[in-house]
Design a protein that fits this description.
Blueprint (H helix, E strand, L loop, with lengths): L6 E5 L3 H13 L3 E5 L2 H10 L6 E5 L7 H9 L9 E5 L4 H10 L3 E4 L4 H26 L10 E6 L2 H12 L5 H20 L4 H9 L3 H9 L2 H4 L3 E7 L3 E7 L25 H9 L2 E5 L4 E7 L6
Parallel strand pairs: 1-2, 1-3, 3-4, 4-5
Antiparallel strand pairs: 6-7, 7-8, 8-10, 9-10
Helix pairs in contact: 5-7, 6-7, 7-11
Length: 303
């Protein structure tokens, strides 16, 4: 999955490593801006001349280190939606958890495997572009959708799931906040639920740029392609609820509710935790994991 012409900010103080990364990204079609440390990167961002879609950030640097810059990025409404890929010399669980808690969704361990690095950069850029598109669609929401009280919807494909996420977000008080989490849950119900793509299979498919091809292949199979995701929408004075059910075998959902350091180096696996933390007030998987209830509170007077 090539993301040609995407602007990448590379924050790296090791000259040789910076050259290697820059050459690999340039060969893949990316436009790379290099900053020698966090302070230089912050100044580049503040200048506002380049619209960056992903940031590769070294952790240990002079002047302003990676963690300090990460905190500044995630506390700023101008930059907090830009995916940050942290670079680290060792897989230190405590350090990785600290980065995840501060908002870094991706990690790379030095030395890098070029194919894995590019797949993670591709995933980060696509995440950013999806988020920008979802926000724009949500901003164009028609207010009559806010009067929707109840309905049952069924769909089969990822495209239809993304369309429904935009539709449902229009019925929510903060559509730009809700739409990303909805899309993650609906896409998960198709690819992992109905189509049975395992976590390890998706990793392999993304690294080898085969994910979309495999999705299309499985949707064309009579048994898998006929499966549907059912979404029940309901609203009352206190809350909005989405019950999402797929026809798959379920999965071990408990370990995906939070950002896990062990998965921080993978090109995916953050969607459920992202939805739970950022989009909904409550997220509850039921049974074997093929049903999930996502809740938004409307009446906050009791809080």
């Amino acid at each position: 999955m090539q993301q040609n012409h995407a602007q990448i900010l590379l924050v790296e103080d090791e000259d040789i490593l910076a050259t290697i990364i820059e050459d690999a990204l340039d060969t893949a079609g990316y436009q790379v801006t290099l900053a020698e440390d966090g302070q230089a990167a912050w100044e580049i961002l503040q200048a506002g001349q380049i619209h960056f879609e992903t940031i590769l950030l070294d952790r240990e640097m002079p002047r302003m280190d990676g963690m300090e810059l990460l905190r500044k990025l995630k506390s700023s409404p101008n930059y907090n939606s830009i995916p940050v890929i942290m670079e680290t010399a060792a897989c230190d669980v405590r350090s990785v958890q600290e980065g995840l808690d501060e908002g870094a969704y991706y990690y790379l361990t030095k030395p890098f495997q070029p194919a894995l690095m590019l797949s993670i950069v591709n995933a980060a850029v696509q995440q950013f572009r999806d988020y920008q598109e979802l926000q724009e669609n949500a901003r164009r929401a028609e207010r009559p959708f806010a009067f929707l009280e109840q309905g049952v919807f069924r769909f089969r494909t990822l495209e239809d799931g993304r369309m429904l996420a935009n539709f449902f977000a229009r019925a929510c008080p903060e559509p730009e906040k809700t739409v990303l989490g909805l899309q993650e849950l609906l896409v998960n119900a198709v690819e992992h639920g109905n189509l049975g793509i395992s976590y390890s299979e998706k990793t392999h498919l993304l690294v080898n740029d085969l994910w979309q091809t495999e999705i299309e292949r499985r949707l064309a199979l009579p048994d898998l392609g006929a499966r549907q995701v059912e979404v029940t929408f309901s609203r009352d004075a206190q809350s909005i609820r989405f019950m999402i059910r797929d026809q798959g075998a379920g999965f071990d959902w408990q370990k995906y509710l939070d950002f896990d350091p062990e998965r921080a180096f993978d090109p995916h696996g953050r969607g459920i935790a992202m939805a739970r933390r950022m989009s909904f007030d409550h997220l509850e998987y039921q049974g074997n994991g093929n049903a999930v209830l996502a809740t938004l509170k409307l009446d906050r007077t009791a809080e």
